[in-house]
Predict the structure of Protein DIS3 homolog.
Amino acid sequence: DPVIKNVIVLQTVLQEVRNRSAPVYKRIRDVIQNPEKHFYSFTNEHHRETYIQQEQGESSNDRNDRAIRVAVKWYSEHLKKIEDEEKIQVIFLTNDRTNKEKALEEGITAYTCEEYIKSLIANPDLVDRLACVSDEGKEIESGKIIFPEHIPLSKLQQGIKSGVYLQGTYRASRDNYLEATVWVHGDAEENKEIIIQGLKHLNRAVHEDIVAVELLAKDEWVALSSVILQDDGQNEDDIENEEEKENILKTSVNKDMLRPTGKVVGIIKRNWRPFCGMLSKSQIKEARRHLFTPADRRIPRIRIETRQADTLEGQRIIVAIDGWPRNSRYPNGHFVKNLGSAGDKETETEVLLLEHDVPHQPFSQGVLSFLPKMPWSITEQDMKYREDLRHLCVCSVDPPGCTDIDDALHCREVENGNIEVGVHIADVSHFIRPGNALDEESAKRGTTVYLCEKRIDMVPELLSSNLCSLRSNVDRLLLHTLKHR
């Protein structure tokens, strides 16, 4: 959000994030590299006045916490030296309770993320976008346990190695929310696909998660059901109703179709991403807790807290999952963004692109900086290593009005009476060098995506519709010409 700016991310924190999650680390690096965001990194581990050594008996985590507090103190003193009418205050943000308490004892102004966001009274909408971070142990005490506990990752890895558990990709059903399959990784042909059936056996896995599965005894195997079950989300506490539905699945089974069946015992890697969908407003007046229904039926409903329910009703919104406690029928999440009214053409196009993970954001300045300067023309140096084919009559098969003409043909009779056909391809490699930001962004996009009234370019428009477009009566460079006689 534009409100969140002037943020310093310490090297100590960046290193920890990189160890925990490569995708999150990349996102933070991208934010830091965006000059409009005003996010900065400070190499406190290589600064004379902020580097600290680990003390005897001090854990690595405690040493890092202390290093963060030392850096915050130094920054506070450092900014006091700046002669400015407006005093700059340094605020330490942490959700680590112990580190916050020690910071306050040392005279550092410290907040949790929630406390800081709630202090921004001019922007109350930001509160809805807070991640739902809670103490899972306390939640278990306050509600009935629905799901089995996930086995720790270290034990899962041992079990997979010994063959007790199987690792695979969890694929939820579009038509039956109480059923899924797990495609087992590896070479084993036997039990390649395992059926998971029933709420407790699904055990909080989400579509495309990498999970560990334990096979059930053969007398507990089931077949994929032909029953269509959609989660209406009317009463999320009615677990008995869920059990009745599971019994329907078992009674509608053809015994000859029984297949290997298992249960999810742990999550190896989550595939959570921001999801598009709509708010299912609570029927309780002035309630803050509501259910979000994703556009993709394979994703479970998500419980969010928002004060904007009246505004968001009938809108396409984006929600992110924060966690899924054992006592909760649905995962907890938070509101991220309002895309616009449901049914609006631009809004639905945005949903389509986001749900299919099509990169469609404008090209960054870092990418655009690698484009050739205009006006551009072919130089004598370029011609030294190229064959001149401008005497040929070359045509495109693209329709009238097409601007991204990246291939064309010629056809002519040669001296021996044969017909020569040539295929001409625009030389994009002349403008995109391996490994630079333009090359990496193009590789990430992979292809140009065509929609009914617009297209999402793989390369910037200067290349796709101009310099790498084989337009009429202008000189263009070709990668190669294939001749068939």
Observations:
- The radius of gyration is 29 Å.
- The first strand starts at residue 7 and ends at 10.
- The mean pLDDT is 87.
- Residues 46 and 230 are 56 Å apart (CA to CA).
